[in-house]
Design goal:
12 strands, alpha+beta, single chain, 206 residues, globular, six-stranded antiparallel barrel, six-stranded antiparallel beta barrel
Amino acid sequence: MFTGIVEETGVVAAVRPTASAIEFTVRPRLCGQGLKVGDSLAVNGCCLTAVKVASRGTRKSVQFDLLQETWRRTNLQFARPGSLVNLERSLRADSRLGGHFVTGHVDGLGTIRRWERSGQDWVLDLEAPPEVMRYVVFKGSIAVDGISLTVAEVFRAGLRIWIIPHTWEVTALRERRLGDAVNLEADLVGKYVEQMLGKMDLRRRR
């Protein structure tokens, strides 16, 4: 479980397809401290398991093995060595919940349709698939590349988000361009409510 409060941007060190998986290696700074094999790390909002942790001097690298499902469903497929990725360590039981509950299970890919500065802030318009939009509500929460953000406006097939300067500066959003893909995870609460209401409706029909 994560909160959507990105701790830092890491740098993609290597992407290497193998017979069983895609070896995806990231160089973190803060998030590498105390990280062990088997630990979870959110990379662009995708919960990944560290399979190898190596150190060379003060530099640390973390390798993940991505299955084809993860590769197809996330924008990690577009990452290249040198790309920035958002990193967040898993939530501790004694930590503050600064954003919202984020599972690290990406629901789908969104596409940037507008990304421009407006005054001191930035406006981000995303086109999103129906399986994500069904849970998007005005002023609700959504994770974009693992960042907990507030929905400012809802369109028929997309949404608008306002980005403050701090978020632009400390996340990989500063690398994004028009047409780029972003990982989307809808608020978990909406999914549970939908399922419970569906079960209640089914009972009534019986």
